[in-house]
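Hi R.,

Here's the chain you asked about this morning:
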Amino acid sequence: MPVYSLKDIEPEFVTPKHSTAFGRLITGKAIEVGVFSYEKGKGAHTHLHPHEQIFIVLKGRMVMTIDGKDYELGPGEAAHMLPNVPHGVLAIEDSDVVSAKSVLDGVGHRI
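And here is the predicted structure, written out as C-alpha cells:
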C-alpha cells in the first residue's frame, strides 16, 4: 500500500525487551519508520543491532548515548547510529520521535 494514515495503524510497544517506545510502524522492504512516544524518565537500555538507524526528536528532550558518549537532543535534532554501535536513550521530558531503521531479513525495529 503506498499511502498510510497513522491513526489506522495500531500502536504498540515496539521493542519491549530494550525500550519503552510506544507507537506505530510502517515497514517497507528496506526501511521501517516509526512514530513513537516516550514518557519522561523512560527510554531504551543500551543495546546494539546490525541495522542502521536515524532518530529525530519532534517534541521534548532526550539524552541519547551513542558509543559511550551522551548527547542531549531537542525538537528538530537527530542522531544517526551506524550498525552494531551501542546506543540508548532516556527521555528527560515526555517526548515524541521519528525513528527510521533499515530492514534486514524482514526485521526492523522489532528486534
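One quick note: The CA atoms of residues 91 and 99 lie 15 Å apart.

Cheers,
M.
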